[in-house]
Amino acid sequence: MKTRKMLSAQEVKVNLDKNGMSIRSWAIKNGFTPSLVSGVLSGRIGCRFGKSHKIAVLLGIKEGEIVGD
Questions:
Q1: What's the Cα-to-Cα distance from 30 to each of 17, 37, 48, 69, rounded to whole Å?
Q2: What is the pLDDT of residue 4?
Q3: Is residue 44 within 8 Å of residue 37, measured between CB atoms?
Q4: H or E element: which one contains 35?
Q5: Residues 62, 47, 60, CA angle at the centre, nearest 5°?
Q6: Class of residue 36 by CB neighbours under 10 A (exposed 0-12, middle 13-18, buried 19+)
Q7: Which of 6, 49, 51, 61 has the fewest Cβ atoms nearer than 10 Å?
Q8: Which pLDDT score, from 0 to 100, does residue 68 have?
Q9: SS (H, E, C) 7-34
Q10: Would you list the domain boundaries of the chain?
Q11: pLDDT of residue 2
């Protein structure tokens, strides 16, 4: 697995903003509910497994692999 720099939730939000994309639009584009993505970014939802894990890995806030969709 290739190692990459992990981002903070704040860095992800800044990057989304720089690209003119809201959390809602990112969520919908990637097949997630906006409330789940928002929960991951706010820290309200743990990212140990399932959809929240996938979101965290895709956003770059957690190292890991996405297996089996």
A1: 17, 10, 19, 13
A2: 77
A3: no
A4: helix 34-42
A5: 25
A6: middle
A7: 49
A8: 74
A9: CCHHHHHHHHHHCCCCHHHHHHHCCCCH
A10: 9-59
A11: 62
pLDDT digits (tens, 9 = 90+) for 2-53: 667 899 999 999 999 999 999 999 999 999 999 999 999 999 998 999 999 9
Tokens of 50: 């399932």
Q: Which residue has the tokens 């906006």?
A: 34
d(CA 26, CA 45): 17
Number of residues in the chain: 69
Across 1-69, where does the E strand assignment appear? Answer: none
Angle at the Cα of 9 from the Cα atoms of 8 and 13, rounded to 5 degrees: 120
- Reduced to 3 states (helix: H, G, I; strand: E, B; else coil), residue 48 is coil
Task: Please report which confidence band the pLDDT of residue 67 belongs to, taking 50, 70 and 90 as the band edges.
Answer: confident
Instruction: Write down the residue that tokens 């989304």 correspond to.
Output: 16
